[in-house]
Amino acid sequence: MFKTPSGEEIFVVDGHTHFWDGSPENQSNIHGKQFIDCFYAYHSALSPKDNLWPKAKFEKYSAEDMYHDLFVDGPDDVAIVQSTYLLDFYKNGFNTIERNAEMAKRYKNRFILNGSFDPRDGEKAIEYIHYLKETFGVKGVKLYTAEWNGASRGWKLTDPAAYRCLELCQSLGITNIHVHKGPTIVPLDKDAFDVHDVDHAATDFQGLNFIVEHCGLPRLDDFCWIAVQETNVYGGLAVALPFIHSRPRYFAEVISELLFWVGEDKILFGSDYAIWTPRWLVEKFWNFEIPEDIKAEHGVDLTPDAKRKILGLNAARLYGIDIEAQRAKLRNEAVAEAAE
Predict the structure, then answer these.
(1) 11-28 pLDDT, tens per residue?
(2) How far apart are CA 35 and CA 86, in angstroms?
(3) What number of CA atoms fall less than 13 Å from residue 260's CA on the CB side?
(4) Residue range 66-83, pLDDT digits in tens
(5) Considering 17, 40, 53, 109, which has the largest number of Cβ atoms within 10 A of its Cβ?
(6) What CA–CA distance (Å, rounded) separates 115 from 10?
């Protein structure tokens, strides 16, 4: 729960979290080390000093760590756990839905599980999407178009195999398609995260919501021009939001562009845990004011209403979360824990 300085309770849905294992024991090759080292470099460069983790904890943290950072010390009411498999780099996968589900079982009412698929797997991908729906009841997936798969070093949403998978997702009610379209991670190829394929897929699949994680950075202009014309394209703030600490004016420019083009109803908060923890992000975001010159140039403002939508109301709408019912569950959970 997050309370403003005035005492208002803000409902927070953390739209981009992970429960990964990037430890040396799980790394299959040098690329597994490169990947987690790149994540740690982002963590080290953009976090406040008092929020830096030792490398060993960053590589593999516990379920207790995650629960504490998101819900006890952190402000989250609900967290969406995204899956990123990277089976070419990690023996047991980096962040699979099976690993996430074991963690989520311990903490009822807190987590929404998202799966993933790779259309290059052909019929196995189709079977796996059915498995995700039947076993976990997923409402969303996270797609990594730059993920390696054997000799292939990326794919596009417009590939025929991808269209088959998206058609199946639409028919099964897996409506929230989170796509990593942001900064590259070593050793993945930067161009494989290009945002242009979102345009075609969003036009052709009106029953799906395409949440472009990291709002296309460093391709913000391309993303904005797509999102302004596609009503089912949304922007995720993960990776963009940490600049609120290290480069606040740059963040002001990013959020102003998003508000101008995309609108406050289509922007979603995400901490990108465990690269960053949500407490300082939410606190700084709530207190953030766009500089007057940028505000005047763009004709937008980051109002309290806009902040409420971005921090939780927009994601709650996409995932069908009944906010009052969720708050009641969490109150009952707190009473039960206190009694125990």
Answers:
(1) 999 999 999 999 999 999
(2) 10
(3) 19
(4) 999 999 999 999 999 999
(5) 17
(6) 27
The string of pLDDT tens digits covering residues 269-315 is 999 999 999 999 999 999 999 999 999 999 999 999 999 999 999 99
**pLDDT, position 337:** 62
* DSSP H helical ranges for the chain: 30-46, 55-59, 63-67, 97-104, 123-136, 160-172, 196-204, 220-227, 243-246, 248-261, 278-287, 292-298, 304-308, 314-319, 323-339
Give the CA-trace dihedral at 273, 279, 281, 282, to 10 degrees.
120
C-alpha pair distances (Å), 104 with each of 29, 107, 138: 29, 5, 13
Name the residue among 16, 28, 320 with its Cα closest to residue 174: 320
Longest dimension (CA), the chain: 55
Contact indicator for 176, 114 with CB cutoff of 8 Å: yes
Question: Which residues, at least 6 apart from 241, have a Cβ–Cβ distance to it below 8 Å?
Answer: 251, 269, 270, 271, 276, 281, 285
**274 close to 20: Cβ distance less than 8 angstroms:** yes
The residues pairing with 331 across neighbouring beta strands, listed in sequence order, are none
Give the C-alpha separation, 40 to 176, whole Å. 28
